[in-house]
Design a protein that fits this description.
Elements lengths: L1 H20 L3 H7 L4 H11 L7 H11 L13 H6 L19 H12 L12 E11 L2 E10 L4 E4 L17 E3 L2 H9 L15 H17 L3 H4 L4 H15 L9 E6 L4 E3 L5 E3 L3 E6 L3 E9 L2 H4 L11 E5 L7 E6 L9 E4 L2 E9 L10 E6 L4 E8 L3 E3 L2 E7 L17 E7 L8 E6 L5 E3 L5 E4 L11 E3 L1 E9 L10 E6 L15 E5 L3 E8 L10 E5 L5 E5 L5 E5 L4 E9 L11 E6 L2 E4 L7 E2 L4 E6 L4 E9 L9 E5 L7 E6 L5 E7 L4 E8 L12 E8 L4 E6 L8 E6 L2 E10 L10 E2 L9 H12 L1
Length: 769
């Protein structure tokens, strides 16, 4: 029971004090005027000298029974301002206890008005800060407030008869109010662009409470000043200022706009009455937006790290109409790939169009709409398409001799391999490398179907293979079978031709001639440069196929387009009059050319591609005929053939048969032999003369055969006959019958006339053929 009485007693005391504070307006207005002495105390305390007036504040505190609502210095504490309406300090002598008159709270006010007022966001609004502002004028004392919204704008009371919103209280989004009187109140009042109060010497607090009254009166026709203290403040100083403000021009033409926010809920107003929370108003120039362009490449695969592409310097026009005819600004792309900013743009829709393409890019023909919002920067990203060259037929291989895309017999233009490299502008190393292979027609298309290794192909915005600006190098790295590799590094420059379109001219086809791998076989007589026609060879290719070929009239056979692998050349029929080459010739062919095995036997000149094969002249058989002057054969005669004039080195010894005939084995041409009778037939004695000399000279390819016998080329004792299709040299030696023992070995005179060597050879050759 005691507890209940106690609580009731506290509540009753608050009611009593509230009644004392919140008495009828008439009495409150009388109490709102300070004496001269109190005005001096109030001014002294505002200057920081409040310690000297402690007793005065204790007196006022006791007068109103506020001992529980003051701090140690006898200024009103939070308990007072949270229990009673903030405007309660306007009653009687309470202004002397108002803590907002102390330097500490003056500093808070200074901080609040000095804070950044840049618009942050127009939505999700609330009261971010509030401070009570008290001002005196003569004997009067008036209280109002200053609010900061979450968009950083300082706001004023738009209805002084309503309750004051508190910190953290939600508000509506700002909405525009078209009220000329309200526009003037904010424009020419405190914090307005053309504040008239500061020049008149009013204090910060006076300017704030006066502007609150301007705003409230312009919006509702009433204010704190018009009602408190029987209109003392409005009549004595705020009203005349309001009239001056309203006499000035409407700032609407200057783009000044008034915004207001509503607050929900109820509170106690300055007069102690329950009332809705006040709307708050602020003014500013119509918020503008700004616009900026950011530039990118639409295909960085083409433009990345390639100095031939440079987005800086691109220009766009800013237009007000969708057809882009009325230009109001220009954007230029800078090194950071952002443009300059165009500011002071009224909210709305604008249009941009590229007027100058950057280096290496196609001009964007599109007109881009963009929306600009108040107090925001719109950033539009515009992409340009890098120029690139389409490629159809990249490489065409041709035969170097025919200049056609058809290989010589036995060779192919298929499966040649090319390494293609792309170098960006000024690059030392390639950005991409590809390996391509030719088709049966010797073609390479810039397509995955022809690619066998390397990086991905460049593709344009239509997914077509293209080549970016820069340089291509094309190098054959594997020749097709039958052809020598082309060592040339071909270059193709992809340059910007100045077109505004993304597609450059088609990359020109690189024609690459290949020289067929060629083997030239020249048949020569040993020791001379005499060509030998008519020699037949059997050619066996690497795949086992065979064909016979014969040297032409110049002793030459030419193979072109030899397939890779080992080829075998076998002489199967020598030309008439020449010996046969028994050893096969092996030739190995690859993309680097050919190698002849046993090159010491078969000399090969890689510079001319000539293989020289020498044939010895076939040795000639020698037949001896031994007769007397009557033509009777003489048997038993012995003849010896020597290799030296001293007749010491025996080549062969033969003896005549019953027909008086004997034959030496075939002897070599261009060699001098010595023939001597070394045993006479029965009834005859050996001659005392020196040995006969014998030398044969022959060039069968030229139908030449000369027999030198005892230094003569046309000797009566020598005859050339054909035997088994080959020439045989016959030498007739005669013995003469005498009374004494006859001498053997004399040359036969008139036995057979030696025919002209050329005539005999030609006849034999024709018969052979």
């Amino acid at each position: 029971m005691k507890r209940t009485i106690y609580c009731f007693s506290i509540f009753a005391s608050i009611l009593v004090m509230a009644f004392a504070l919140l008495q009828s307006p008439v009495q409150a207005q009388e109490d709102a005027l300070l004496t001269t002495a109190d005005q001096e105390v109030l001014a002294d305390q505002r200057n920081g000298n409040f310690a000297a007036h402690l007793d005065v504040r204790k007196e006022v505190c006791a007068l109103y029974g506020l001992e529980d609502y003051v701090d140690a210095d006898y200024f009103l504490s939070d308990a007072f301002y949270t229990t009673f309406p903030p405007f309660s300090v306007m009653r009687g002598r309470l202004p002397l206890l108002d803590r907002y008159q102390t330097p500490a709270y003056q500093n808070k006010l200074q901080a609040m008005v000095g804070a950044d007022q840049t618009w942050k966001t127009p939505k999700a609004m609330q009261v971010a800060d509030f401070t009570q502002v008290s001002a005196s004028w003569g004997a009067g004392y008036i209280v109002n407030g200053l609010w900061r919204l979450s968009n950083q704008q300082l706001a004023f009371c738009a209805n002084g008869m309503h309750a004051s919103p508190t910190i953290g209280q939600s508000t509506s989004d700002p909405f525009e109010v078209d009220n000329p009187a309200l526009r003037k109140a904010l424009y020419y009042g405190y914090n307005g662009p053309e504040n008239i109060l500061e020049a008149k010497g009013y204090s910060l607090e006076q300017m704030i409470v006066a502007t609150n009254d301007f705003v409230s009166f312009a919006h509702t026709g009433a204010s704190v000043g018009t009602n408190a203290a029987n209109g003392y403040h409005w009549n004595n100083w705020i009203g005349p200022l309001y009239d001056e403000v309203q006499s000035r021009p409407d700032p609407k033409e200057k783009g000044y706009v008034v915004y207001m926010v509503d607050t929900k809920g109820e509170g106690v107003n300055w007069a102690g009455q329950t009332a809705p929370f006040q709307p708050l108003a602020y003014g500013q120039y119509a918020p503008k937006g700004e616009l900026q362009i950011r530039k990118t490449s639409s295909n960085t695969d083409l433009s990345f790290q390639n100095p031939a592409y440079d987005l800086t310097g691109a220009q766009y026009g800013l237009y007000q109409d969708a057809q882009a005819t009325t230009q109001i600004g220009t954007f230029t792309i800078q090194e950071d790939l952002s443009s300059n900013r165009i500011t002071d743009l009224a909210p709305g829709t604008y249009y941009i169009r590229e007027t100058k393409a950057p280096q290496g890019y196609a001009l964007d023909p599109a007109i881009h709409p963009v929306s600009v919002s108040a107090n925001e920067r719109a950033v539009v990203t515009c992409a340009d398409t890098p120029k690139a060259a389409p490629v159809d037929l990249l490489i065409q291989k041709v035969d170097a001799d025919t200049q056609l895309g058809e290989p010589v017999a036995g060779a192919t233009l298929e499966n040649a391999q090319f390494t293609v490299r792309h170098f960006p502008k000024d690059a030392k190393e390639p950005a991409r490398t590809w390996v391509f292979r030719t088709d049966a027609q010797g073609r390479v298309r810039f397509d995955e179907a022809y690619q066998i290794d390397g990086d991905p192909l460049y593709k344009d915005h239509q997914n077509r293979p293209v080549v970016p600006l820069g340089q291509l190098t094309i190098q054959e790295t594997k020749a097709p079978s039958g052809y020598q590799i082309d060592p040339t590094i071909h270059t193709v420059t992809i340059a910007d031709t100045g077109t505004t379109e993304p597609a450059l001219s088609l990359v020109q086809t690189t024609t690459i001639p290949n020289r067929a791998i060629e083997l030239r076989l020249e048949k020569r007589q040993t020791g001379t440069n005499t060509p030998i026609p008519g020699t037949t060879f059997l050619h066996t290719a690497p795949d086992g196929t065979q064909n016979q070929v014969r040297t032409d009239e110049n002793g030459v056979i030419v193979w072109r387009g030899l397939a890779f692998g080992v080829h075998t050349l076998e002489e199967i029929e020598p030309s008439f009059g020449y010996g046969k080459i028994q050893q096969p010739i092996r030739v190995e062919v690859d993309e680097n050319g050919l190698v002849v095995h046993d090159a010491e036997t078969f000399p090969y000149d890689p510079e001319t591609g000539t293989l020289t094969v020498y044939n010895d002249v076939q040795p000639f058989p020698i037949r001896l005929l031994k007769r007397n002057e009557h033509g009777t054969p003489l048997a038993g005669a012995e003849f010896t053939l020597y290799a030296d004039a001293a007749c010491q080195t025996v080549v062969e010894t033969i003896e005549t048969d019953e027909n008086g005939e004997a034959a030496f084995a075939p002897i070599e041409v261009d060699t001098t032999y010595f023939l001597k009778e070394t045993k006479a037939p029965d009834g005859y004695r050996l001659p005392q003369t020196e040995a006969h000399t014998l030398k044969i000279e022959a060039v069968p390819a030229q139908d030449k055969l000369l027999v030198h016998f005892d230094g003569e080329t046309s000797h009566d004792a020598v005859a050339i006959e054909q035997e088994d299709g080959a020439p045989t040299i016959t030498i007739a030696l005669v013995n003469h019958t005498q009374t004494a023992l006859p001498v053997t070995g004399s040359a036969m005179h008139g036995w057979m006339s030696a025919l002209g060597a050329m005539t005999v050879w030609i006849a034999l050759r024709r018969q052979k053929q």
